[in-house]
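Appendix B, example 12.
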Amino acid sequence: MHIVKSLLIVSLLCSYSFSDGVDSAKIKFNYWGFFTFGMVQSSVYSLGDGVDYDFTNQILNDFDAGIKSTAKFEENGKIRFHVGLTTAYQVLNTKIVSAEAGRRKWVVYLIDAAIEDAIKKGDHTFFGEFGYFPVKYNPDARNLGEYLFRSGTYPGYVCSGFELSDKEKLIGLHGKYSYAISEKSSFTTDLWFTNECRDFPIHDFSLSYILSVNLAGIFDFGAGLSHAHMISFDKTHVEPGTDTMRMKSSINRQWVQIYDTTSGDTINATFRGTKAMARFSFDPKALFGTTVFGKEDLKLYGEWAFIGMKNYPVYYEKPIERMPVMLGFNVPTFKLLDVLSCEVEYYKSPYLNTAENIWLKRSPLPYTNAPSPDSILTSHDDDLKWSIYAAKTFKRFKISGQIASDHILKLPYVPGAPSQGVYREICPGTKDWYWMLRVMYFF
């Protein structure tokens, strides 16, 4: 109910603030909906302490629908408001008899609510947007990658999932400058100043920037940094070891402090840190001078990230363990499909890829699969991830599918109160995998 009220307030504010400058004839509406059906072929159950659900042979099913409105003002200004409605069929806990958790529930969610404007001066373009907006800086990534915004810093976990590569959201300001070097070459720089809304500690501000160069539509390079939790208004949140009340408990203290056995020093763990990213894309089709290939065919692309650039004793000593690398290739289908992409990822982190400690313990330390960080249990069974994605668009319909062992979470398919949240992956090992199909309409 609170979500619905918030959406109505935002809608009224937009209507009030810009009603004098917007021509009703320039307001455009788009509608869409999709049905998703899939199944987990292999998973892992009962990982350590806490609540867990058995996802092996579980059906993953949901239906979403939405409406997007775009209102133009002045020459290049736009107001965007995009809202969706979803229902996800919850999995059953096989340890109990009741099936009540599977009763259908509808949830309204915000996709985009922002104002944008652009200024064009010859070969120069300045673009800005403010509000709540999706972000995607790697145009070729279908599932894996997009690490700069789809990751935690400390602990350094990463996110992915079926058709989620363009679904990450930011709140704040985004500015972009583009320079057209030639008809097919360009230079672009992006700057984001955003308020943390996904991971604790919320309310903090982060600064991110990316430089990108496209050369003749053949080579595309990008690199950037993100200073996560750069500005914090409560030090006890971003550095929980400074919370004197919390430090009175030895149980709480073990999750927020690091004892360096080499120097004998005690270090307060922190959520604050810097992430780096570099990506590339190579599209050789322009060299062939032929039109038999589809737009996405033959693209080779990749992304590397350094999640948490500062080393800390015990947990974050080896930089290589905080560097995920993704490589992808679009198999040529000669226009039979929009795209057929194959992606692999190597991430040598010895810890489970989860945000569980962030929310359940307010801890920047990695989840160690143990009641205490003193007894670290590590594993490299999940170092390699993979994904195969295919899509075909018709006039007003799109059919897509994926088989993968990626970082899809259990949380959206698990019922219960937030305190019972399961923040672990459906496929915690390389051998665990699932498949999904989706049919989408739009007009």
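DSSP finds five helices and 18 strands in the chain. Residues 7 and 237 are 29 Å apart (CA to CA).
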